[in-house]
Amino acid sequence: xxxxxHTSDVHLGAPLGWLGPRAAEQREELRRTLSxxxxxxxxxHADALVVAGDLFHSNNPSAATxxxxxxxxxxxxxxxxxxxxxxxxxHDSLGIESVYTSYRDEFGRLERVSVLGLEGRNSVAVxxxxxxxxxxxxxxxxxxxxxxxxxxxxxFAFNVVVLHAAAEESDVEDxxxxxxxxxxxxxxxxxxLGHLRSWHEIEGVGMPAVYPGSPELVVMDGGGQGHVARVxxxxxxxxxxxxxxxxxxxxxxxxxxxxxSDSFSIAEQVRQQAHSNPNAVLRLVLxxxxxxxxxxxxxxxxxxLAAEYFFVCPPVRDYHVRVSDEDFVQLPExxxxxxxxxxxxSRLEEAGSEEERQEIEDALQLxxxxxxxxxxxx
Length: 378
Ligand SMILES: [Mn+2]
Fold this sequence. Notes:
Blueprint: E1 3-7, H1 23-43, E2 48-51, H2 63-79, E3 83-86, H3 99-102, H4 104-109, E4 113-115, E5 123-126, E6 131-136, E7 158-164, E8 190-194, E9 200-201, E10 209-211, E11 227-234, E12 237-244, E13 249-256, H5 263-273, E14 277-291, H6 298-305, E15 309-312, E16 316-322, H7 325-329, H8 336-350, H9 354-371
Parallel strand pairs: 1-2, 2-3, 3-4, 6-7, 7-8, 8-10, 13-14, 14-15, 14-16
Antiparallel strand pairs: 1-11, 5-6, 9-10, 11-12
Bound molecules: manganese (II) ion.
Manganese (II) ion is lined by residues 53-54, 89-91, 164, 195.
C-alpha cells in the first residue's frame, strides 16, 4: 500500500526575528526538521514526500539554503525509492522570480524530484505504487484561470491532489481552512493541503483532507505546529496519522498582577503554570490591576525567566493601572508626581478607546516611576 509523507510551510530561510537572540538557532532547527522529515520518509519506506507549498519562506533564500534542500532530496531519492513532489506556495510562488525557476536546472538534475506547475507539469506518476499526485496551483500560479480543477486519472488506483490555499474570506492573518465545497470533486484518495501553520483536518469531504501545518515553529500562535502527516493509501480507505517532528513547543502563562509585588514573585507564578523547558517558547499574558507605583518591569521579568525556556516573548500587557484615591494619598498634589498622576487620571476618564486607555495607563505608570526616581526604562 502506498505511503506518503506530507508536509508544508517549512519556511526555510525565514528570518525569525521575533525570536531575538535565538533566531539563528531556530533557523538551523528548521533545516534540521527537513532532515528529520527525510529520515522519516526513508524509515517508513515512503513512496512519496509531498510538500504542499512554502518549503521556502521567500523566493530569495540563500544559496546555502537551496543547496541544503537539494542535498537532502538527493539523499532521500538515493536511499529510498520515494519521489519528491513540490508544490510552490504563497511565499515561494511560481513566476519569473521564483526560487524554482532560478534553480530550475539544479532541481531538474535530481531524479524523481518534481515541481508542480513548472514546465506545464501538473501531475506526477509514481508507477510502482499505482499512485498519481496532481497539483492544483492557485491564483497567479495558474497559467490559465479557466483551467479548472484537475481530474483524477482512472488508470491509477490512487489519486492525490495537492493544494496550497486558505479560505478566501478570512480575517485571520494565517487564514482559515478552505471549505469542503471548495475542494475538487470526487475520485480522490487524499487531499494534501498547505498554507496554514497548524494541523487542521477538513470534515465532510468523504476522504481525508489535511493541513499538516508547519513541521517546526515559525510564527507565534496557538502552538498547533510541529507535525507531518503520514498517509497510508489502502483500497479500503485512507489512514492518516499525525507524526511529531518539531523540537519546539509553545507554552502560555497568564499571571494576575493584582497582588504581585515584584517581578520575582510574578516569575514564581509563571513557573507554576509553565514548568521550565529548554525547548519551549513562553508566551506571557499579564492581567489584573496594578498600582501606579508598582512599576512592573517587563524586561526584568523576561530576564528572570530567560534561562529556563528556549525563548520568553515580551509579555502581552493585558493589565490595567489602578488609580484609586488610596494610591493618590501617596502622590501629594503639591509635588510634580502628584499633579502628573491627577492629570493622567482625568485623561483616563476621557479616553475614547481601549487602545487610548492602555496608552495613558502605560504613560501614567512609567511617568510616576520616573518622577519618583526609579530606573523605569531598565
Ligand atoms: Mn502560504
